[in-house]
């Protein structure tokens, strides 16, 4: 609940340092109080956090996200 109140006041909740820079940026963009400052769903789908692969494997047997 504390996070909801902080967001409403324009204060983003603490974001774990363990997240990547792209993940942090994605979250902060989603938490913009003013909807005019928030990216659209289409813009979020083009964000580097969403666009990069979940993992990269050197195995020739692993293809895409399904394994």
Automatic annotation (TrEMBL):
Pfam families, A to Z: Pkinase
The protein's UniProt keywords, in alphabetical order, are:
ATP-binding, Kinase, Nucleotide-binding, Serine/threonine-protein kinase, Transferase
Under InterPro entries, the record lists:
Kinase-like_dom_sf (IPR011009), MAP_kinase_kinase_kinase (IPR050538), Prot_kinase_dom (IPR000719)
Instruction: Name the source's superkingdom.
Output: Eukaryota
Q: Which PROSITE patterns match?
A: PROTEIN_KINASE_DOM (PS50011)
**Residues of the Protein kinase domain:** 1-50
Q: Which GO terms describe its molecular function?
A: ATP binding; MAP kinase kinase kinase activity
Q: Which SUPFAM superfamilies match?
A: Protein kinase-like (PK-like)
Where is it found, in Gene Ontology cellular component terms?
A: cytoplasm
Give the family from UniProt. Belongs to the protein kinase superfamily. STE Ser/Thr protein kinase family. MAP kinase kinase kinase subfamily.
The protein depicted here goes by the name Mitogen-activated protein kinase kinase kinase 1-like
Question: Which species does this protein come from?
Answer: Trifolium medium
**What is this organism's lineage?**
Eukaryota, Viridiplantae, Streptophyta, Embryophyta, Tracheophyta
């Amino acid at each position: 609940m504390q996070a909801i109140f902080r967001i409403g006041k324009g204060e983003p909740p603490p974001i774990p340092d363990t997240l990547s820079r792209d993940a942090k940026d994605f979250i902060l963009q989603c938490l913009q109080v003013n909807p005019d400052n928030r990216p659209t769903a289409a813009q979020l789908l083009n964000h580097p956090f969403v666009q990069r692969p979940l993992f990269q494997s050197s195995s020739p047997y692993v293809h895409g996200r399904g394994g």
